[in-house]
């Protein structure tokens, strides 16, 4: 007998979001948060909003508060695994769908829920098809600017905090400060890394399908 047969669905929803999608270095992180309907105002009073509006330190602080108070899941796909998955799928939206579906499934393992909201990316069927047994009956809503939803905004904070943590430790591992984004600073860091460790290092630290990889190799 399924958990959903034993317990009625909670009056709330799951929100999911990702971080690292546009960052050359570091992982792709997808997070989800379950929020009861009556807790939305509490989230607003905590100051929860899209993580892009916060400083890095504030993102870390907010993430700790959310983790302590709400059911959540965080799935991080490190660069090596990311490059492997991308080579197989050849489609970033399918990779994102895989991550969002895993997060939804993880939360459904803890709490029965009938609704999940994600930011708009690709075809929603990508996520629906990637969902497994627990998620097959959930209503999935994809919409632009989904971070206006409190659960999605909370998820964006968890995803960004995990991305920042992993990028920091990855920088320490390779001995080079790996910048966020995919700006000339990232190109400069990539050239420095390849000079130090060889071109193979990019598979360990970067999302190799970015055009930045070609520019870094060309410069060398």
Describe the structure.
With 220 residues, this protein is of the alpha/beta class. It has 2 domains: 10-171, Nucleotidyltransferase, domain 5, CATH 3.30.420; 175-219. 51% of the residues lie in helices and 15% in strands. It contains 10 helices and 5 strands. It has helices at residues 3-6, 40-46, 56-69, 79-89, 92-108, 124-130, 150-174, 184-197, 201-205, 211-219; strands at residues 12-19, 28-36, 72-77, 115-119, 139-143. The chain has a 5-stranded mixed β-sheet, with helices on both faces. Strand 1 (12-19) and strand 2 (28-36) form a beta hairpin. Helix 3 (56-69) packs across helix 7 (150-174), helix 5 packs across helix 6 (124-130) and helix 8 packs across helix 10 (211-219).
Features:
single chain; 220 residues; alpha/beta; Nucleotidyltransferase, domain 5; 2 domains; five-stranded mixed beta sheet; 10 helices; 51% helix; globular; disordered N terminus
